Amino acid sequence: MYHLEPQCSAADIVDHLSNERKMRNHGLTTRKVGFFIPRYLSELIGFTLDHSTGKRLYHLAA
Fold first, then answer.
1. In this structure, are strands 45-49 and 56-60 parallel, antiparallel, or unpaired?
2. Strand partners, 47
3. Three-state secondary-structure class, residue 57
4. Per-residue DSSP letters for 9-52?
5. What are the structural domain ranges in the chain?
6. Single pTM value for the model
7. Quick one: how far is CA 31 from the chain centroid?
8. What are phi and psi for residue 29, nearest 5 degrees?
9. CB 7 within 8 A of CB 59
10. 9-25: pLDDT as tens digits
11. Looking at residues 17-39, what average pLDDT do you find?
């Protein structure tokens, strides 16, 4: 069972995939995830900008 956060950063996604899903040797980086999500998953995952850090916070699209 997965614990879903309401919002997460690209670093959180990479951490989950690398450690929880055992995808350590797949070359995943926060930059690759940041490019992939808006390009290929924009219908499923949306993002907002965190004004304090300037990072994207991803969430499931409504």
1. antiparallel
2. 58
3. strand
4. -HHHHHHIIIIIS--GGG---HHHHHHHHHHH-TTTEEEEE-TT
5. 10-60
6. 0.75
7. 10
8. -130, 165
9. yes
10. 999 988 888 888 887 77
11. 86
